[in-house]
Design a protein that fits this description.
Elements: H1 3-14, E1 16-20, E2 27-39, E3 42-52, E4 64-67, E5 70-81, E6 84-91
Antiparallel strand pairs: 1-2, 1-4, 2-3, 3-6, 4-5, 5-6
């Protein structure tokens, strides 16, 4: 099982429904949590979103995604690979 398949399986069981601004009517499954980030010029606690690359447009940094009614901006990638990327996200104020 590759990383994308595992992500899809885990998201079906433990993920949240989200909506990206590029297709606001289409629900996608994501993993969202607060995590300790160390790297990419960021050290400390932060919100981390894991999403399948095919579910959002290319170069999504700065775009908005809504999870459970709260909107977040996708900031910098903090991990991933094999069709899945983890992003640091910032709550829209």
């Amino acid at each position: 099982m590759n990383k994308l398949e595992m992500f899809r399986l885990m998201s079906q069981n433990f993920g949240e429904e989200a909506f990206h601004e590029s297709a606001p009517e289409q629900a996608i499954l994501v993993r969202f949590k607060n995590d300790f980030l160390d790297g990419n010029d960021f050290v400390g606690e932060g919100n981390v979103l894991t999403v399948a690359d095919v579910d959002i447009p290319e170069s999504p940094l700065g775009t908005k995604i809504t999870i459970a009614g709260t909107a977040y901006y996708l900031r910098q990638p903090v991990g991933g690979g094999a069709g899945v990327t983890k992003y640091q996200v910032e709550k829209v104020m």
